[in-house]
Design a protein that fits this description.
single chain, two-stranded parallel ribbon, 273 residues, alpha/beta, Rossmann fold
């Protein structure tokens, strides 16, 4: 089940959290080669070494700034030089910095779109070109968010970026139907990860034990785990998901549009700083 035997995968955000979990699971499920993309050279090289030692799967790291199109193209060229093919692309990297419609700066907006939309767009472009040329029936998996539908007020540009990614997923999937290249998206909810811990403590002033308290309030008494999301991504990337394409799937312990009594509302008025 969910095997990716002999496949070569590129995974963005692979130096920690979800991207790392996805890369490791691909390796365990038979991948021939993996290239993880990220910004932290030291951590990326350590993760690549760890995956190769634990699984025997040839794994490389390529330092990449997703908002830099030329850098994205270099990452794909590097992968093709190492393996001569790319079967799977997972866009797992994501910027989640906070800012509502009033306080979001142009700098933050451009950074958000660059990382969450521009980078995935041009990575997909170069990967797809190679897949078409070599007639590879590949799979692309984008990591989205429940925030793509509306999102909290403090996630204005983030929600916008994930909504754009969902449209990109469906548009690209339709365009590539006859090439049998599948494109799907997993809209994940609140997940326990290294990145989430940094966000909670940096932006929300949460104590170090915030995860324990947050878990108590959830229906399943825990947050999503990176390993279970990685397994879902592997399913979408593998032949077990059949002809599924253009799907944007919610993976969360909530149901969009459902509420106990009255519709939710923001906590208060937006204030000018």
């Amino acid at each position: 089940m969910n095997r990716v035997d002999g496949k070569v995968a590129v995974v963005t955000g692979g130096t920690q959290g979800l991207g790392k979990a996805i890369s490791l699971n691909f390796a365990k499920m038979g991948a021939k080669g993996i290239v993880i993309l990220g910004r932290n050279q030291k951590r990326g090289e350590e993760v690549a070494k760890l995956i190769q030692q634990e699984t025997g799967c040839e794994t490389h790291f390529f330092k990449t700034e997703l908002s830099d199109v030329n850098n994205c193209r270099e990452a794909i060229s590097f992968t093709l030089e190492k393996f001569s093919q790319i079967d799977i692309l997972v866009n797992a990297a994501g910027l989640t910095d906070r800012g509502n419609i009033v306080e979001t700066s142009e700098e933050l907006f451009d950074k958000m779109i660059g990382t969450n939309v521009k980078g995935p767009f041009f990575l997909i472009q170069d990967v797809v070109k190679d897949m078409i040329k070599k007639e590879i029936k590949g799979s692309i998996v984008n990591i989205g968010s429940q925030a793509a539908i509306t999102g909290q007020p403090f996630l204005a540009s983030y929600s916008l970026s994930k909504g754009a990614l969902a449209t990109l997923t469906k548009n690209t999937a339709f365009a590539l139907l006859n090439n049998n290249i599948r494109v799907n998206q997993l809209n994940i909810g609140w997940m326990a990860s290294d990145g989430e811990h940094q966000i909670q403590t940096k932006f929300h002033g949460a104590p170090d034990n915030w995860l324990e308290d947050a878990a108590k309030e959830q229906p399943f008494k825990r947050l999503l785990g990176t390993e279970e999301v990685a397994k879902a991504v592997t399913f979408l990337a593998s032949e077990d998901s059949g002809m599924m394409t253009g799907s944007v799937i919610d993976f969360d312990q909530s149901v969009v549009g459902g509420y106990p009594f009255s519709p939710p509302k923001p906590p208060g008025k937006l204030e000018l700083s």
